[in-house]
Structures are given as C-alpha cells and as structure tokens.
Write a structure and sequence with these properties.
By secondary structure, the protein is α+β, with helices and mostly antiparallel strands. It has a single domain, classed as Electron Transport, Fmn-binding Protein, Chain A (Pnp Oxidase, Chain A, Roll). It is about 15% helix and about 35% strand. It contains five helices and 14 strands. The strands form four sheets. A seven-stranded antiparallel beta sheet has the order 3-2-6-9-10-5-4, covered by helices on one side. Strands 1-13-14 form a three-stranded antiparallel beta sheet, with no helix packed on it. It is globular.
C-alpha cells in the first residue's frame, strides 16, 4: 500500500502519523500567561535534540476546530518559558484530564488535583507529583501553517533539571522507578518498562576491507 499524504484530509494524515510513530514519550508542559495564570497540558510529539547546548523540543498542533493556537503555545510566545514534567504511570490519569481543552482562565493544576512547586529560574510552576522536571527557556519557535492540522515546533533550552533523589543511582535515572508511560494511537498508552530487552551496540570493526 502506498499513501500520498497530500491527497489526505488532515485528520486522516494525522491517523497515519500517530499510528506509525510510536510509542511516543509525553511532555507534560506547564506554562504561565502574562497575568500569572498557570496552564498545564500534555503533548506526545516530544523528544530531545542535543546535549550541548541542552535542547529539547515538542510540537503543539493547532486546534482541530478552528486552527487557533493552544494556550500552551500562546503562553510560550508571550513569556518564553515553560516546564516539561515527565509523566510516570502514577500521574497518568490527571495528565489525561489536562488534555481537555479548557478556557485560558482555567487552571488545569486545580482541575486535575495536582500540586504546584515553584521553579527556580523561570516563572511557570512544576508538577509536584512528577519525578523529573526540565525548566526551559524558549530557544527557537517555528510555525508550520495556521489551519486545523497545522502545528509548531517549540525548541527549549533546559536551564535546570530537577529529579527525585531516590530515582538516581550511580548518577543515572532508575527507569524502573520512574515508570514512564508512552502514547500509542487513539486512547492507548504503553508502559515503557513492561517488556524491555537489551541490545548492545556493535563496536566498529578493525578489520580492513579489501
């Protein structure tokens, strides 16, 4: 089967995207508007970019109804600051509650029953129930269209990492204790540690080629 994305309606193209790019880690992004109101929303188009400088990115799509910017994107454009809170299974349900499209004045922390922790280098609060937080300053913002199905790429420089003390062993995060979850297609999620396996990367061969 061959599929030409240009021939698809955006909702159909989106289904092909989320059905093939998986599992996807979840960026639980907290922001604050210029009036000081907090916002919290999950995004599963999320990954790291590089370690020097320490850059991460996530891609908020436009609203499917009218192509308007989501509150998270509008807040980052206005303030240049955000926190990525890592999602472990223990906060899966409140994270999902925050996926609801509330009005800008609604505080999703309160709606989902989550607590705030103050950040140290930026204004937006962190999610107390999350075990890892990345305080970020906007590095670059790219827009790709302004219609339903369009999106943006938010690139952030990580200014400070917070991690629960008990997660760290020999300078590394204990993945089993973090117990992260990933997004699949539709309403499906996956446990990252449910069925893992190891493969060591092969070392470069010293054998000369003829």
């Amino acid at each position: 089967m061959k599929i030409d994305p240009a021939a698809l309606a955006w909702k159909d193209a989106y289904k092909w995207m989320i059905g093939s790019i998986l599992p996807r880690p979840i960026a639980f992004v907290s922001t604050m508007d210029q009036q000081g109101r907090a916002n919290l929303a999950p995004f599963s188009f999320f990954t790291g970019i590089c370690a020097e400088p320490f850059l991460v990115c996530f891609a908020p799509m436009r609203r499917g109804t009218d192509g308007a910017k989501k509150d998270t994107l509008a807040n980052i454009e206005a303030t240049g600051e955000f926190v990525i809170n890592v999602v472990g299974e223990k906060i899966a349900e409140p994270m999902n509650d925050c996926a609801t499209e509330y009005e800008p004045e609604v505080d999703e922390f309160e709606e989902a029953g989550l607590n705030k922790l103050p950040s140290e280098r930026i204004r937006p609060p962190r999610v107390a129930e999350s075990d890892v937080h990345l305080e970020c300053r906007l590095h670059e913002l790219l827009h790709f269209g302004d219609q339903p199905g369009s999106g943006s790429l938010v690139i952030g420089e990580v200014l400070l990492i917070h991690a629960k003390d008990t997660l760290i062993h020999d300078g590394k995060i204990d993945t089993n204790q973090l117990n992260p979850i990933g997004r699949m297609a539709g309403p499906a999620y996956t446990r990252a540690i449910a069925d893992t396996f190891l493969m060591e990367r092969k070392k470069k061969s010293s054998r000369k080629r003829g």
